[in-house]
Amino acid sequence: MSRATKLKRAPAPSDSAVSASDRIVSDVVRGLYDGRYAPGQRLVEPDLMQRYEVGRSTVREAIKRLSAVGIATSHPFRGAQIRQLSRKEARDFLLILELMIGLAARLAAANIEEPGRRRQFNDVYRQLLTFANDHESYEMVRARDRFYRVMTRIGDNAELARSLPDTQVHLVRTHLRVSAEQRFEDYRRIGEAILGGDQQAAESAARRHIRRSMTMLDELPDETFGPDSPEYSNPAIQED
Predict the structure, then answer these.
(1) Which residues of the chain register pLDDT less than 70?
(2) What DSSP designation does 116 have?
(3) How far is the C-alpha of 238 from the C-alpha of 240, rounded, in Å?
(4) Which of the ends of the chain has fewer CB neighbours closer than 10 A, N or C?
(5) Quick count: other Cβ atoms within 10 Å of Cβ 21?
């Protein structure tokens, strides 16, 4: 059986308003969770063209977008692949994420009584809790992402909303499997603190949740990670 025959076809698109490249990007992110894609995996253009039944230009546009948000890397003559973070890159990312998620939770608690915001947050929070017994599905991942997006939105800080990363986190979370019980206990602590308007408790709960991932990261074997990318190097400051 040929390599092309083994490829499982992606489901046919159902929403014509979403571009073909959008669908590819979304499916690659989903594939990071269900095991169809993995950090370090090559993104071979002919394979992607057949899988998604699109032309080369669409595949290249999708790879360009994946590279722009840090999920893929592309090199001349070597093609593209899913980015494999080094241990330092992943740890540095989580350090920043801890601060930003903590701030988002604090601001959400501070603004929860503004018109309409309690309802918005409570809706996504309750929806997330419905996945407590279905914690490995991609639908849960989407519910969790909505929880964080709305939490950030009601905090009403445009700079935070622009800066908060929502893509590279997928590369980290594919390796970090905090138990479902602990994760949902953390979500409850964050959600109840925000709904209670307790800014300090909301920030503390959110930061504690990210620190759990950081602890797990430190325990992973070296082969889980890639080398530091050249653009990530931190050369010493040159004196004039």
Answers:
(1) 1-18, 135-136, 165-170, 173-178, 229-240
(2) T
(3) 6
(4) C
(5) 20
Q: Which tokens sit at 215?
A: 């602890």
**Which two three-digit tokens encode residue 205?**
């709960």
Q: Which two tokens stand for residue 116?
A: 């309409």
Task: Write down how long the chain is.
Answer: 240
Separation CA 81–CA 43 (nearest Å): 5
Between the alpha carbon of residue 1 and those of residues 7, 11, 47, the distances in Å are: 10, 22, 15
Contact (Cβ atoms closer than 8 angstroms) between residue 43 and residue 27 = no
User: Considering only CA atoms, which of 188, 190, 186 is closest in space to residue 202?
Assistant: 190
Bridge partner residues of 72 (DSSP): 82
Q: DSSP labels for 4-65?
A: HHHSPPPPPP--TTS-HHHHHHHHHHHHHHHTSS-TT-EE-HHHHHHHHT--HHHHHHHHHH
Cα separation, 198 vs 183, in Å, equals 20
Neighbour count for residue 2 (Cβ, 10 Å) = 6
Residue 144 tokens read as: 């969790």
With CA atoms as reference, report the closest residue to 209 among 234, 236, 189: 189
pLDDT at position 76, please? 78
Measured CA to CA, the distance from residue 26 to residue 165 in angstroms comes to 16
What is the pTM assigned to this prediction?
Answer: 0.75
